[in-house]
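Here is one chain, start to finish.
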Amino acid sequence: HLDNVLDNNVEKKDNTKTVFSNIQEAREYYSMEHEANPSAQWKIIDFKQDDSNKNTAQATISYNNHTYNTTYKFNSDGKIQNIDSHLQQQQ
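Its structure:
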């Protein structure tokens, strides 16, 4: 499934720390997240395209009782190339 949406060289950063740098590491990351939190769900709270070229988008994501502000950058094929996620301060 990830092959359909992620670029082979996809990179994800959480609060500026690199979490994964390619699709194989992404598979391992999401598998470990699911094993650690099998009942947790990813929920999109807000989503908007940033520009007319449609190569970036902003989203607010809820996961495991945390909320993240996330920027997605897409390659020319429409696959996610970069994910930059920042944990919102808890109120």
